Amino acid sequence: MRLAMQTRTRNLYLIPYVFWMALFVVAPILLVVYYSFFDIEGQFTFSNYAKFFTPVYLQMTLSSFWYAFLITAFSLLIAYPTAYFLTKLKHRRLWLLLIILPSWINLLLKVYAFLGIFGSYGLANSLLEVVGIGAQQILFTDFSFVFVAVYIFIPFMILPIFNAMEELNSSLIDAAKDLGASTWTTFKRVIFPLTLDGVKAGCQIVFIPALSLFMITRLIAGNRVITLGTAVEQHFLVTQDWGMGATIAVFLIIAMALIMVLTGKRKKGAV
To answer: Start and end of every ABC transmembrane type-1 domain (predicted)?
Structure first.
């Protein structure tokens, strides 16, 4: 009887969660799928899906994955050693807060700040002139796009890696050193495998939104970088072809789901 009451109570607590998921996750996805079967004139069609597999959209898909990979890779290369050194500091929580603090600022404000920094008369070109290199075209380039995206996403990569390193048992590292393992071997065989879940979580958090960026591509890259996110924005807001925009969104949702499955935790079977 008591177990039945606990089960009933737990099911009651699940009702708001299920309602929230149905209303704000399942329903929007179904709506996107529904719109993907209509053309710009409102006629039912499968042509949107056929159109997606043309060279233009396939090239756009490859470009989106390539830039998302670059952003994730650079974020990881910077975030991992940063998270490691943060765990060695005395006031590491304070330093972590200072790193996360910029993520509280509105994204549009940060992007506009970089328009000034990378502009022809901005801080970056002023520094280049001081060191004798001279002014360069920094804005509206692949470099500026990746740089700004990495800057925005780095806090989200650092946090899960830092948490994983915080949970790492230091006695395992001491044991590896006592057994004669070098610093590199200790990192490769002990530290990195035990913090891999944090790395996977960070890569999920960065790669998935980086796959559908559109505002940074427009403002920082000057539409020189065209991604699937940019195409979705164009179809919904400019061409008014909601069907094609929804079709691209469907493939983005599928890609994101696959990434979550591939990088998610796997339960180890009993030995």
So the answer is: 61-263
Domain membership of residue 7 (yes or no) is no
Q: Output the average pLDDT for the chain.
A: 89
CA quadruple 138, 143, 149, 152: dihedral, nearest 10: -60
pLDDT digits (tens, 9 = 90+) for 62-99: 999 999 999 999 999 999 999 999 988 888 889 888 88
Q: Is residue 241 part of a domain?
A: yes
Domains: count for the chain: 1
pLDDT band at 269; cut points 50, 70, 90 = very low
Q: Is the pTM here over 0.90, yes or no?
A: no
Within 10 Å of residue 74's Cβ, how many Cβ atoms? 19
Scanning the chain, the segments in alpha helix (DSSP H) are 2-21, 27-35, 47-52, 55-86, 92-100, 107-117, 123-130, 142-166, 170-178, 183-186, 192-194, 196-210, 215-219, 228-237, 242-263
Other CB atoms within 10 A of residue 89 CB = 11
Query: What CATH number is given to the structural domain containing 198?
Result: 1.10.3720.10
Backbone angles phi and psi of 211, in degrees to 5:
-70, -25
Long-range CB contacts (within 8 A, 24+) of 179-188: none
The boundaries of the domain holding residue 188 are 53-263
